[in-house]
Amino acid sequence: MTNSYKPEGMLLSTYQNQELISTAAGLEHALERQIILEAPAILCDHNFDLHVELPGGMRGIIPHGEVQYLPDGEQIKDIAVLTRVGKPVCFKVLGFRKGGGGEAIAVLSRRAAQRECALRYISTLIPGDIIPTKVTHLENFGAFVDIGCGIVSLLSIDCISVSRISHPSARLSVGATIYTVVKSIDERGRIYVSERELLGSWEENAARFSEGQTVRGIIRSIENYGIFVELSPNLAGLAEIKEDARVDQTAAVFIKSIIPDKMKIKLIIIDSHREPHPAGRLEYFIDPTAVSHIDSWTYSPPSCKRVIESVFSAGG
Predict the structure, then answer these.
(1) What is the mean pLDDT of the chain?
(2) CA 181, CA 132: separation in Å to the nearest integer?
(3) Of 127, 124, 89, the residue nearest 109 (C-alpha)
(4) 3 state DSSP class of 270
(5) Across residues 94-116, what is the average pLDDT?
(6) pLDDT at 276 exceeding the cut of 50
(7) Is it the case that residue 9 has pLDDT exceeding 90?
(8) DSSP of 105-119, one letter per residue?
(9) What is the Cα–Cα distance from 65 to 110, expressed in whole angstroms?
């Protein structure tokens, strides 16, 4: 699937966008052809209109009612306008008018851009589609991601990876561009996404390790029967209790055994200490630039009696 409706910020530095927002003629061309453009929002005035920075010298304004597309008829919340300041916003050109000093003002609509994206792109998505997204903000329960033109979707914390984490910031950072899979679509057309299906099966992750190695891991949870240590986002092993171990510590772990039939990796913690381990670049085991859809995904090895899988269907 070719997606021309990118998350906000991804059009900003493209040649066509820069060319069209830089001159009055370019903006008029965009109006005539109904082309979606992007530029930074630089302020919100007392009317809750957004002012947009256009490099050609013309002022751009998105009136309050044109800041967001809400298909269910809800009122635009003030916070939804305020939080756009300092960020790129997509828009269509609605027309031109004169300001109080006689200067030309471009009247813009983010709502119109989002409506087109929703009708022509988002409404065509089905479960199993792999799409580019951009992290907009993080909560304890998950991350919100822009799936196109500023329209957001929820990536719940349990769908970020197989290895459990206490907060999405362990994997993601605001502004990061990631790929996700459309997990489900509810009766209102709201889309929910997942990422763990792109991060490899148990076998694919375990194949990078061998018995007898000592490797780096992150302590994710401590139970009365052992300590779970993450070796990669979709792979964790169980270590014996170590008195001074703490959650979120970096650990040097010795791999005692790898048991595909039971989907287990047994570890011994050699050392653990506090060391920053910020969210890094995630490794995808499916090439999202070459594969645009999956019908299903199986995490567990064929020899394992316990089956962990995701099956995508149009019904969600």
Answers:
(1) 93
(2) 9
(3) 89
(4) strand
(5) 93
(6) yes
(7) yes
(8) EEEEEHHHHHHHHHH
(9) 9
Q: Are 109 and 101 in contact (CB under 8 A)?
A: no
Instruction: State pTM to two decimals.
Output: 0.90
Which one-letter DSSP state was computed for residue 94?
A: E
Q: Which two tokens stand for residue 229?
A: 């240590």
How far is it, in rounded angstroms, from Cα 194 to Cα 64?
32
- Which residues make beta-bridge pairs with 180? 131
Residue with token string 């772990």: 253
Map out the domains of the chain with their CATH numbers. Answer: 15-120 (2.40.50.140), 125-200+293-311 (2.40.50.140), 203-273 (2.40.50.140)
Alpha helices in 22-97 (DSSP H): 24-33, 78-82
Cα–Cα dist 232/199, whole Å: 9
b/e sequence 26-56, b meaning 16+ C-beta within 10 Å: bbeebbeeebbbbbbbeebeeebbbbbebee
| DSSP state, residue 163 | S
